[in-house]
Amino acid sequence: MVYLKQFNFPNEIDEHRIMSNLDPRRPRNSTYPLGLFSSKDFTSMVFDPITIIYGGNGSGKTTLLNIVSSKIGALRKNRVNLGVYFEDYVALTKFEMSFERPLEIKFISSDDVFDNILDIKAINAGINRNKEFLVREYIENKYNFKETDITNYESVKAQIEPRNKTATQFVRDRLLNESILEHSNGESALMYWEQEIKENSIYILDEPENSLSAANQIKLARFIEDSSRFYNCQFIISTHSPFLLALSEHIYDLDTIPVATHKWSDLENMRLYYDFFKQHENEFVD
Description:
This protein is of the alpha/beta class. The chain has ten helices and nine strands.
């Protein structure tokens, strides 16, 4: 599904107009994002169901996603300071949508994933403290008989329950979110993506492979592909992951001037990987 069809960036003349019309009292120590894309003769994007943005650090991948997400009104968890010229720049961009409207438009960054992992760790710390308390409660109620008011259901239950369960069963039943403890950082990150991505929507993802192992990157790539093919989602993704790069036939390479689209297998880094593995192919045993 393609909801967002095309996006146009300001050219050099438009950017000069921004500079000319600004209040002279505004700080000019940084003109970001002016010149970032016009200097690469990059003024227009056409989108596929899965559109990939590729480039090295400083090439403008995240900036591009921030511009697009701001213009089309994407929801995001964390607001960031994007500079004094950012809103003026975004105001001059244009986009075209299809007649179909997405249920939601969401920007998800790798920082959002890390924040979620930290939240889980904080929850886990609380759960671990609670586990110690529950183990003490289990031992006390299982082995220390107390006279209990039989009309008090909770008191009776507290004494009977430990006698019918092992300590592990008792603690797990009390900790309804125990499953949080059973996942690594990478698994938690993958679960986060799966929870955030719904059907019939646009998702703008900034380097979603961060904190994921190669195996989990493959799982994420399959999930994104299935969400696009079967659940009418559109994705705009910045990535270095070969597993995600392979999802799209046309990849916008921000390292080239002018910016051009390439097949994933023609990208410089992918060719370096290919050459390296070709040199060492005899070391791989089937």
